[in-house]
């Protein structure tokens, strides 16, 4: 099977039942995405596929052949961190760091959803041209990513600084 991961074409022979997460970690050596619950409940395995965030533990690798997959390893531009990665460092958006790759990928996917006008359950005005990334909107959209250490204040501050027009 052929995959496009972080801009590079990669091939792997895997069982058709192999999850995308297991492909990335065990077959392609990209261990940034973490296996937390392996049930899609914690978000530690979140990656971007064609710009959309998904839980890679619930996805079969075979479904994502020839699609653009971005993991946490693909966020930085060479030695320069992605602005969200830099904000996580500045705001102490991590403690143990286990959830951080999923948090980063999920937040980037979330920002794209907002830019495309995709509402959430708490979006107040469905007819508005833009959706403000306020406190409630940010927390609702990131609710699928859990942090066992409780570093949520730093995580929210980093995301708000990077993507919000006004403080969350």
Structure description:
Residues 1-75 form the 2Fe-2S ferredoxin-type domain. InterPro entries: 2Fe-2S-bd, 2Fe-2S-bd_dom_sf, 2Fe-2S_ferredoxin-like_sf, 2Fe-2S_ferredoxin-type, 2Fe2S_fd_BS, Aldehyde_Oxdr_Iron-Sulfur, Beta-grasp_dom_sf. Keywords: 2Fe-2S, Iron, Iron-sulfur, Metal-binding, Oxidoreductase. This is Xanthine dehydrogenase YagT iron-sulfur-binding subunit. This protein is an alpha+beta fold and 168 residues long. The chain has two domains: 2-74, Roll (Ubiquitin-like (UB roll)), CATH 3.10.20.30; 83-163, Orthogonal Bundle (DNA polymerase, domain 1), CATH 1.10.150. The chain contains five helices and five strands, in the order ββαβββαααα. The chain has a five-stranded mixed β-sheet, with helices on one face. The model has no long low-confidence stretch (mean pLDDT 95).
């Amino acid at each position: 099977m052929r995959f496009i991961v972080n801009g590079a074409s990669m091939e792997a022979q895997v069982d058709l039942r192999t999850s995308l997460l297991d492909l990335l970690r065990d077959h392609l050596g990209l261990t940034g995405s973490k296996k937390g619950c392996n049930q899609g409940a914690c978000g530690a395995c979140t990656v971007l596929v064609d710009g959309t965030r998904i839980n890679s533990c619930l996805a079969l690798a075979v479904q994502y052949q020839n699609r653009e997959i971005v993991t946490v390893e693909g966020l930085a531009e060479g030695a320069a961190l992605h602005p969200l990665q830099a904000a996580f460092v500045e705001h102490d958006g991590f403690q143990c760091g286990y959830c951080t790759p999923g948090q980063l990928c999920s937040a980037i996917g979330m920002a794209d959803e907002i830019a495309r006008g995709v509402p959430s359950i708490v979006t107040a005005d469905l007819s508005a041209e833009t959706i403000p990334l306020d406190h409630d909107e940010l927390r609702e959209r990131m609710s699928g990513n859990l942090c066992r250490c409780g570093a949520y204040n730093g995580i929210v501050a980093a995301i708000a600084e990077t993507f919000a027009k006004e403080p969350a």
